[in-house]
């Protein structure tokens, strides 16, 4: 026996390629024409062959699986049954092909019952996939053991590949096609039939708007689906449909009514519960599944004090309530795997339908001609009935009779006009005479006597005329491609009428992040931060304006050892930067902060930000809502030890969830403030002991890195520290020009309308008025004053500075100092949690080194620790007593006015600049 040596490398390569192609072509990838893999095609064909139609009784699934496995698909009963089960699941298929009875699984991942318990039959939609298969519309091939034939493709009447989608993993390639809306696809096919030059963009914009999942849900944005439609690859972001309801008094809940496609509902709920247990999502009080036969309903009950929109945002981020579908539109096209775009798939289907209709028409034409051929013979016999009867009676046997009928020529009669349609060029009518074929002679001999009655004779003639019309129609279809395409279009429209349903998946234009923010109402919030790291936001409308010198109201409930450290007003969409004691920076938007009441203490920032043990937030800074507006701006840091550093703002706009390094700090130092600035601005530092310094931003070079300590901004005395930093407008004026303007401006403020700015032109005065800012300084004892920015001369960086406000025994040390405008309001907070809101316009303008007037009557033993400024939101400025508080009596009101008058006289009598 001869044994030929073979290279193992060549044999492995050849064998593996054969195996790979077998998996690709015969198992894993669908055909672009009918959208089916071989196992699905064999299931439907076997059911059709056995007569398991939609209008007939159900049959045991085990029987169907047995037929498929025995005749066509010898790969195991479980594989066949799993494929059949999926075709019956209305949450997996956009247009189910199997009508199942029994347990066929659920969205919770429950497995179907065993095949011996369930029953099934073809769905009506499946009949339109397999219709006309017996009219030679598709090719057949031998089954696995050459005992019967099976179709290589089904003559699908709608683009099933896109309607129901497909998924499969082959060798070296995979497919993942989402389901689409049948009505949209048929509209697109009709449009391509009318105009084959339509582009993919035309199809997307006018007809196929995106996938349409059987479970509904929402598709976010069009970037991914447009990529998929154009290239065959893309990622579609989808999320469940939710709404927020009030389930009972003061208790809100998120109701999930639709979940993303192919998401296991039970596993999703389990994942949510795990995140709540691990405290990664807070604010969920209860979680339950109330789904039933009517649809999905998952209730996420929200705890009091938590905002449902924030919880919903977290569910989208951390759970499968939002997921993505990776589109990979790979299918077999003419036996070869091909990555196709939307137009290519639809065109391949249209070409296939054109071939199917052509082959069906040819088949029906042949059948019609065969039937007409027989009827033509009967019509000739009826036309010559006496001669035919006489010939048959004289014939000794049937064979002789048949031969004599074929040899003789008969009067054609009414058959003559139809001869051209009967496809019989060898038997033309000559001088009205017609010669019968063997088939016609045989049918005449088998003719029953009742067909010779007058009514039956007329019926034969009528049938023959009708067949003539049918044959003419078939021939016209085959002669005219336009007519064939019109027929295809009408059949597609009929499919849409029968099976099209409204779109289930909504497509939203906005991408995820923007879409979530659209759920958050734009609202001004008072953000309050305590020294121990608690933060909250309270609607600004909660606070009402009072006149200066009022008693204030409770601004925050704090622990005995805790004090309110910072308070500011920001929009819910404002991004915030959180600078920590370790020199890290974190980013979060205001709407993500916990919503509270004026009396609530808020939530620990350690639960909001990924802080290390012992790390706390020292500075919270606002960014412009549109960060592109500050693309040319810089950021200035200041520390308690007097250090400053300047960086580009772009170094801090892209902050990930785990934060990034902001600034290197020496031991014992802390970050005081961080502000946005430009090179034309000035830096204004104030100290606890009443000193201040003003220098140009350009005196601080731009640092390339973030891991540095910066340079000296002010030289501090012993026991002194920087308590605030502000950014002022630039403007280079000489000392004489500042003094001249101040004399002029102070005289005008005192009511002298005839004052003249000596030494200054009108243009200079106007320019200085436009650039003048007023600096509000507030002491720990509640005193304060406004001073013109021209009172503070510009010096070099690193000096000792000048006096800012008198720090007497009455005033105490400085709590805050920053620029304000006439229409602004301020909120002052004490370390005991008392808060007052008052208008800046009620605070008089005074010299730089004065004691100021009473702004806040603080309780004994308390000190002002935080002062925040914001724009007046429309209050009339009148003192309004809070609900539940008594309005001051007339005597008390007179006393307050007297106190304010005394404060004003006291402030005016204070000394000038030291």
UniProtKB/TrEMBL annotation:
One of its GO terms (cellular component) is chromosome. It catalyses: ATP-dependent breakage, passage and rejoining of double-stranded DNA. Residues 872-914 are annotated as: Disordered. One of its GO terms (biological process) is DNA topological change. Residues 875-894, 905-914 have a biased composition (Acidic residues). SMART domains: TOP4c. InterPro entries: GyrA (IPR005743), GyrA/parC_rep (IPR006691), Gyrase/topoIV_suA_C (IPR035516), Topo_IIA-like_dom_sf (IPR013760), Topo_IIA_A/C_ab (IPR013758), Topo_IIA_A_a_sf (IPR013757), Topo_IIA_dom_A (IPR002205), Type_II_DNA_Topoisomerases (IPR050220). Residues 29-525 form the Topo IIA-type catalytic domain. A type II topoisomerase that negatively supercoils closed circular double-stranded (ds) DNA in an ATP-dependent manner to modulate DNA topology and maintain chromosomes in an underwound state. Negative supercoiling favors strand separation, and DNA replication, transcription, recombination and repair, all of which involve strand separation. Also able to catalyze the interconversion of other topological isomers of dsDNA rings, including catenanes and knotted rings. Type II topoisomerases break and join 2 DNA strands simultaneously in an ATP-dependent manner. Heterotetramer, composed of two GyrA and two GyrB chains. In the heterotetramer, GyrA contains the active site tyrosine that forms a transient covalent intermediate with DNA, while GyrB binds cofactors and catalyzes ATP hydrolysis. This is DNA gyrase subunit A. The gene is gyrA.
